[in-house]
Each structure stands twice: as structure tokens, then as C-alpha cells.
């Protein structure tokens, strides 16, 4: 018997090229092409039939985008891939539908808010300026917002953080369940209810309106958001890190302080910033407890103060063209304030995040 090995001289099958129509597959840029085709068809139908509303044009384009995606994929590939393409197209359509109002709101605020937004507007108050005339600024409201939100954060962030640590690391039994239940209830409390609660305490102890009273109401609204977001971030920390630290003989409190919290610091900081953004635009508690003021008051514990949301409402209530311009400028300052807070939070999260070697 011969020991020779018979070699297969048949050529190896060539790998199908990705993105080639000859191989019954659509290229990667097919989704973008379908979008352009749907937009062109939707605008064309809108022009032919005389549709005046751009919303109708957009809805037609979205519908045709999904339809073109399905038909083309079914013809070129198969119906199974066509259904997958339809699901992907619907995700893109929903994303764009959510993005359009946000961009429209941002564009309108920037367009109308920049009319009076300058250095004088940022460094002057409304003292001595009639509401229906031009002039004045937002400085007093900006100071009030910074102080009120800052005090509310100093009150609620430590309490919320410690509560979340208790629920995740120590909480068991009836007390933990009760705390979780009340946190869930407080998450849905309207802002006016928190303001009425602090107003009741003011009447009981005969306290005067001040920025601090408004901060107490804002802290009530902020606390459950901090608890819930911090709790979720702590749950994402792997248990192996806790077990490794405890196995080395490190006490549990030190493990939480040196291992758990540094690992979750990025998510915790983001949650605190989201809570600040949630209370930065509240108006009802400020109307009840702070009363608003046209003057600059840097003392949050004595006398009425203003805030950016209250300033915006106050200027819109006047009803003149000058007051409308100031209101839009105040709204732009408030949006910029929240955006800067989020950027700072992301910077802190990246700076404090644990470094992992590659």
C-alpha cells in the first residue's frame, strides 16, 4: 500500500466580499442611502401635493424611509434581514423624533436669548428698572440660584449618599424596606408639596422668607434622586472587589470608603449633577418661600431672593417686548448653567475614576 498522501488540488472558495450586491448583501452605507431616499421622496410628495406643514414632510419621510428599507432589503437579501432592517430603521426614526424638539428648543432659546445677553446683562440687577423698559440684568437671580442650589446640594448630597450606602451595604429587614418605600414615594412628590411643607414649618416657627427656606424645599426634591442614582451605582460595583478587600482583613467601613465609593464615584457624581439639574429649574418653592426680589441679596439666610426660574416667570408676566427678551436671555443662562454643571461632573468623574492598566 502506498503511503503517498493525495492532495486536494481544488481551489479554496473565496470569501464573500462584505458590502457587495453580487453576494446578496447590502453595503454598510445602505441605511444612510435609505434615509436620503426617504427624505427626498417625502419632500417631493409634500411639494407635489402642496403640504405646508414641515411636520407632515418629516412624517412622510420617516414612513418612506422605513418602507424603502424593508422593500430593498427583502429584494436584495431576504425577508428575515428585512425585518431586522425595519427594526433598526424604527430606532433611528424614534431617535430623530426625540432629537428634533430638543434642537428646536435649543435653537429658539439661543436665537431669542442672545438679543440682550451681554456683559451688562450678566452684571446688573433689575433694581430701579421698570419691567416694561429695556435694561436691567440677571445678576441678582444668578446669585440666588447659585446659593440656593449650593445649600440644597450640601444638605441633600451627604444624606442621600449615606442612605444609599446603608441600603446597599447594610440594609436588611423592615427598616430597609421602609426607607426604600419612602424614597420611592418622595421621588414623585410635586415641588409645590415640598414648598408647602417648608411653608408650614415657617408659619409654625414664625420664620421669614429667605433663600435658605427655598433651599430646604429644593433639598427635599433632590434627596430621593441622589439616593436612587447612588444606590444603582453602588450595586454595579463587583462583589469580588468587596470580597478581596474583606479577605485581606480590611474592615467593612474602610472597604466601602476606599474600594466601593472610589469605584462608583463617576456614576455618583453624575447622579448628583442630574439631581442639581432637576432642582435648578424649580419655580413653585421659590415663589412660596423666597418671594423674589429685584435687588441683589447675597445673604441667603436673611431677606427675599430671586432665582433664574423665578426671574424668567417674572419677566414673562410683565408682557412687554423688553421683558420677553430678558426672559429668553435668562432661560439661556439657566441652560448654560446646567450644561456647565454636567461638563464639570464629567470632568470630575474622569479624574476620580480608578486607573486600570492595560
Descriptive notes:
This protein has 358 residues and is mostly helical. It has helices spanning 30-48, 54-76, 79-113, 119-123, 139-170, 174-187, 191-205, 211-235, 239-247, 252-280, 284-289, 308-318, 321-352. The longest helix has 35 residues, at 79-113. The radius of gyration is 29 Å and the shape is flat. Residues 16-23 have low confidence and may be disordered.
Helix residue percentage: over 70%
- Determine the number of helices (DSSP H or I, runs of at least 4 residues): 13
The radius of gyration is 29 Å
Strand content: under 5%
The separation of the N and C termini measures 56 Å
What is the number of E strands?
0
Secondary-structure-based class equals mainly alpha
Q: In terms of per-residue confidence, which ranges show pLDDT below 50 for 5 or more consecutive residues?
A: 16-23
User: Which sheet architecture does the biggest sheet show?
Assistant: none
Q: State the shape.
A: flat
Write down the secondary-structure element order.
HHHHHHHHHHHHH
pLDDT averaged over residues: 87
Which features would summarize this protein structure in a list?
mainly alpha, 0% strand, 358 residues
Topology:
Blueprint: H1 30-48, H2 54-76, H3 79-113, H4 119-123, H5 139-170, H6 174-187, H7 191-205, H8 211-235, H9 239-247, H10 252-280, H11 284-289, H12 308-318, H13 321-352
Précis, in short:
The protein is mostly helical and 358 residues long. It is built from 13 helices and no strands. The longest helix is centred in the N-terminal third of the chain and has 35 residues, at 79-113.
